[in-house]
What does this fold into?
Amino acid sequence: MIAALLFVAALAAEPAAVPPETAVSAPSPIADTDLREFAAIAGRKVAGRPVEGPYANADKVLLIRRDDKGYPVVAGGMGFPVRQSPPAPPAGTLAVVRLHQRSETVVPGPTTDDLAFVKANRLPLFVIGEWARPAPMWEVAWVDDAVRYRTIGEVGEIGPWRD
It folds into this structure.
C-alpha cells in the first residue's frame, strides 16, 4: 500500500529538471601554459625529421588535444603544403603546431598563412622554424580581437605580443 502511494505521488509530482547537455566549450584563443610547454617539447622533437608523403616540400602539422586524464597529447600529425593555410582542425583540437622547413618571410616569424589560420579558427598556433638550431618558435593567437604573435624561447620564456 505504501509503495503504491509513493508511486502515485511520484507520478503526480512534476518531472525532475534534466540538466541541458553540456555544450563543448570553444577552446581558448590563447593556449594554457601546459599546452605551450608541451607544444615546445613535442614540436622541437620532430624538427629536422623528414616528411613523408606526396609533398616534396612540406610543413609538418601537429594537432594537440587533451587525453582522458587532462594531459596534452599529440592527436595527429601530417605533412601540409608550404604557403597554404591549413583547414579547420577536427573538434576537440586545442592547439596546432606548424613546423616550417625554411623561412618564407624577410624577418623570420609566422607567415601570412599562419596568421590567416588563427584569424579563421581562433585557435592557438605554434610556429617552429626548422631552418635554425635551436629551432625558433612563435605563438600566434587571437588576442584583443586581432591576430598577434610572440616569441617562445628555448626554456619557455615568452616575449611581448606583437601585431
Q: What stands out?
A: The longest helix spans residues 33-46. The two ends are 75 Å apart (CA to CA). The helical segments are 2-12, 33-46, 112-121. The chain has a mean pLDDT of 80.
